[in-house]
Write a structure and sequence with these properties.
The structure holds 2 protein chains of 2 kinds. In chain A, strand 4 and strand 5 form a beta hairpin. Chain A has strands at residues 3-6, 11-14, 19-26, 32-38, 45-51, 56-59, 62-67, 72-77, 86-93, 101-103, 107-112. Chain A is an all-beta fold. In chain A, the strands form 2 sheets. In chain A, strands 2, 4, 5, 9, 10 and 11 form a 6-stranded mixed beta sheet that branches. Chain B is an all-beta fold. Helix content of chain B is 0%, strand content 51%. Classes of the chains: A mainly beta, B mainly beta.
């Protein structure tokens, strides 16, 4: 069956350290993968997109990698701050480029001052 | 720009009642989608539209109807509410297909008693 897996346990991390989240998928061949941030009571907000032919993408303190062989994406927040505390969702393109995204359940990050 | 606006923000219904969740976007996006988010389940696609007059079913369409008479509006109708439809509903829009990010509203929190 098709699955997108993110760690269900919250990641507690000290301010200033790097937070690393994992998104694993099975039985999909996505052309791209997206990461979103969701704060309590709000809708998800787009952060980054990485295509299947890209190994790494960066935006300010965020870095995403995409390994189509391992079927895995890693999401890094460097020099984490308390304001980075949120839930982070990965989303896969499940129909090779049309309007169909499948979302993981999300992984909560708590940055401790 | 307001982005994606959802109304109401909260609603309580009795089993068997019907209602319409409103979604409007002011970004002239062709693609619009409805998701539901339940604890431990992640975001699941209910219905989507690739343009005015065109709609299609997503992953969990049963019990819901949609229509798209204008580019801006994409209402979601619950025909006969059931407790299983208690959830947080998110509307999203995107410009075109492919790698464009989804823009989400802040959700409608719906409880069915």
């Amino acid at each position: 069956s098709q699955k997108i897996e993110q760690n269900s346990e919250a990641l507690n991390i000290q301010e200033g350290k790097t937070a690393t989240l994992t998104c694993n998928y099975t039985n999909y061949s996505p052309a791209y993968l997206q990461w979103y941030r969701q704060d309590p009571g709000r809708g998800p907000v787009f952060l980054l997109l990485i295509r299947e032919n890209e190994k790494e993408k960066r935006k300010e303190r965020l870095k995403v990698t995409f390994d189509t062989t391992l079927k895995q994406s890693l999401f890094h927040i460097t020099a984490s701050q308390p304001a980075d505390s949120a839930t982070y969702l990965c989303a896969l393109d499940i129909a090779r480029g049309n309007n169909r995204l499948a979302f993981g359940k999300g992984n909560q990050v708590v940055v401790i001052p | 720009n307001a982005g994606v606006t959802q109304t109401p923000k909260f609603q309580v219904l009795k089993t068997g009642q019907s209602m319409t969740l409103q979604c409007a976007q002011d970004m002239n996006h062709e693609y619009m989608s409805w998701y539901r988010q339940d604890p431990g389940m992640g975001l699941r696609l209910i219905h989507y539209s690739v343009g005015a007059g065109i709609t299609d079913q997503g992953e969990v369409p049963n019990g819901y109807n949609v229509s798209r008479s204008t580019t801006e509006d994409f209402p979601l109708r619950l025909l006969s509410a059931a407790p299983s439809q208690t959830s947080v509903y998110f509307c999203a829009s995107r410009k075109g297909q492919g790698t464009q990010p989804q823009h989400f509203g802040d959700g409608t929190r719906l409880s069915i008693l």
